Automatic annotation (TrEMBL):
<comment type="similarity">
    <text>In the N-terminal section; belongs to the LpxK family.</text>
</comment>
<protein>
    <recommendedName>
        <fullName>UPF0434 protein G3574_05120</fullName>
    </recommendedName>
</protein>
<comment type="similarity">
    <text>Belongs to the UPF0434 family.</text>
</comment>
<dbReference type="InterPro" id="IPR005651">
    <property type="entry name" value="Trm112-like"/>
</dbReference>
<dbReference type="Pfam" id="PF03966">
    <property type="entry name" value="Trm112p"/>
</dbReference>
<dbReference type="GO" id="GO:0005829">
    <property type="term" value="C:cytosol"/>
</dbReference>
Amino acid sequence: MDARLLDILVCPICKSPLEYNKAAQELICNADKLAYPIRDGIPIMWADQARDLNAPPAAK
């Protein structure tokens, strides 16, 4: 993930800064408790694509 891109990206809902989780390939909004996926190096910044960090883990 390009550091310059991380400097300008914000949460589309609350406009808070995002934290990059390299292992999970996600951008985390701590304010809204959402994780936006990064697919093929492209951040997917749609609220309906974000993972709720408060949701229980999916059963396997």
